[in-house]
Amino acid sequence: MMAKKPAAKAEKTKKTKSTAERVAEPVKKAGKVIREGAAQAMANTAAINAKVIDHAEANAREAFATMRKVANAKSVQDVIKAQGDFVKEQSARSAAHVREVGELIASFGRHALDTMRGK
């Protein structure tokens, strides 16, 4: 009777390992997906940051160009025109920048959802 117990225990250990192996595989897959998602999120953040820096540089260039126009203006009307033009152009630029960053974020979101859905 004693000989049967170790055999039964060995069989139970085999079943336990099999269950552990079955549980480990999905956990490994989930870990891989999480690591890939984190890497993609970092890349997305870097892309957004680069775009925002590009926009800031463009805004600074335009501001300095307007300051040059104001500094070289021959009349108050030239100053008012340069400043008015800058405000109008800056408003349009800002709207375009917001739209561009928003579209970038939306595309990252769509890609993340597609990845989660397995597409």
How would you describe the overall organization of this protein?
The mean pLDDT is 87. With 119 residues, the chain is an all-alpha fold. It has helices at 4-71, 76-117. It starts with a helix and ends with a helix. The chain has one domain (32-117).
Radius of gyration: 31 Å
User: Largest sheet, if any?
Assistant: none
Tell me the fraction of residues in β-strands, as a range: under 5%
Task: Tell me the structural class.
Answer: mainly alpha
Shape type: rod-shaped
N-to-C SSE string, H for helix and E for strand: HH
Oligomeric state: single chain
**Number of E-type strands:** 0
Q: Residue ranges: pLDDT <50 for 5 or more in a row?
A: none
What is the overall number of helices?
A: 2
Distance between the termini: 56 Å
Percentage of residues assigned to helices: over 70%
Tell me the number of structural domains: 1
Mean pLDDT, all residues = 87
Secondary-structure topology with pairs:
Elements lengths: L3 H68 L4 H42 L2
Short structural summary:
The chain is mostly helical. Helices cover 92% and strands 0% of the residues. It has two helices and no strands.
Structure keywords:
119 residues, mainly alpha, 2 helices
